[in-house]
Amino acid sequence: MKAEKIVDEIKKRAMKLESADDLDAIVQAIGDADFVLLGEASHGTSEFYTLRAELSKRLIVEKGFSFIAVEGDWPSCYTLNRYIKQYEDSAVKVREALRDFNRWPTWMWANNEVMNYAEWLYDYNKNKTDGRKVGFYGIDVYSLWESMDEILSHLKKTGSPEMEAAQKAFDCFDPYKRDPQTYGVSAAFLSESCEEEVVKLLTDLQAKRQLSKGEDESALSDELNALVAVNAERYYRSMVQGGPDSWNVRDRHMVEALNRIKAFYGPDAKAIVWEHNTHIGDARATDMEADGMVNVGQLLREQYGDNRVYVVGFGTHRGTVIAADQWGGEMQAMMVPEAQSGSWEDVLHKAGAYDKILLFDHDLEPFQVPIGHRAIGVVYNPRRERGNYVPSVIARRYDAFVYVDESKALAPLRQEILHY
């Protein structure tokens, strides 16, 4: 009966999504929010990227949003940022700017959908002054060595006095041969941590940016790379010990990075965030809370208040997706089977086999019961679907939901796609 009631409510409330113009309802509902979090149920679905891009265009043009922050590495995303802002010595073509997305899973950002959106951002920024150009940044925590490389390269090029602290931090990590697991074991169990070195480096670079009066984006880049080094060190150290700590380090890092970028753009800056539903959908509305886990959506709502943070989830009933069958494996175009009976995606399909939008802005009672909600990672096996459903109170997890009945895999720029 629970599922039947939800189906009936969806039929009453759903708005058809047939073109980009139908996104008006979400744009209007966002109101004056400072943060708009746009999710995805997988990292390999074309429609999630294209719909987020369309929403982001509207938010930039109509509501003056300042930058996009994504679940990606700072160094590679900063290369793309330099391109779309037309910095001197930046990439000449968008494909060249996307070459830095060379760490697995490459398809997350090196794909046709991101390339097309980057071209739009490039054109949008053409006639804007430097302070008004929209930025594109990676706020994830994985790029420890790449971030250290970027810091050393820039400080050496500029003859910076912070070079000594940077070299000391780099030398501390050097014996681990860029293997995060080796470092994590040594730091967690053998007391061979580089924490002191990277914290000292971050402190020095923070002070340097403050002296620059916050106007130099290269100083921001050095500081954010140092922040990655600090929190990546903590992440890899906690990862080998198990438990929720590594997840929490990662999501707290993403929020800290967001706050620093927002501060760089000024007190009136507004941010768009592209991340998986598991990061942007409030963790308190899922079983993550019982496991001691927090996420970006929860932390931003707690820091800024619900009225300043608008969260949009995305999902699909069936289709295809880019993923791999093991960590670091070959990317493949895999089938996404029909959603399990009684799941959120299943009731959306039963309410009508069409793309739709739901807003959770009144009479939320029908959507206040926990229901299984599918999450597909970069590692996926469609034959073992049962563990991919996260119990969620949908109306508490999101402010709105975008549903694609039958989705297709995104189009990576590199490597031949294997078909499952």
UniProtKB/TrEMBL annotation:
Biological processes, Gene Ontology terms: response to antibiotic
Pfam families: Erythro_esteras
Name of this protein: Erythromycin esterase-like protein
UniProt source species: Paenibacillus prosopidis
Superkingdom of origin: Bacteria
